[in-house]
Amino acid sequence: MRAGGWKTAERKRRRHARPRPGREARPGSLLLRARVVLPVARPPLADGAVLISGRRIAAVGRWRDLRAAKPGQVADLGEVALLPGLVNAHAHLDYTHMAGQLPPPRGFSDWLKLITETKSGWSLADYAASWQAGAQMLLRTGTTTVADIEAVPQLLPEAWAATPLRVFSFLELIGIKGAAQPRAVVREAAARLGVLRHRRCRVGLSPHAPYSTVPELIRLSVRAARRRNWRLTMHVAESAPEYEMFARGRGELYDWLRRSGRDMSDCGRGSPVRHLHRCGALSERLLVVHANYLARPDVALLARHRVPVVHCPRSHDYFRHDPFPWRRLLRAGVNVCLGTDSLASVYQARRERVELSLFAEMRALARSAPGLSARRILRMATVNGARALGMEGQLGELGEGAGADLVALPFAGKTADAYEGVLHHEGAVSASMIDGQWAIAPSSD
Question: Mapping DSSP to helix (H, G, I), strand (E, B) and coil, where does residue 378 land?
Answer without folding.
Answer: helix
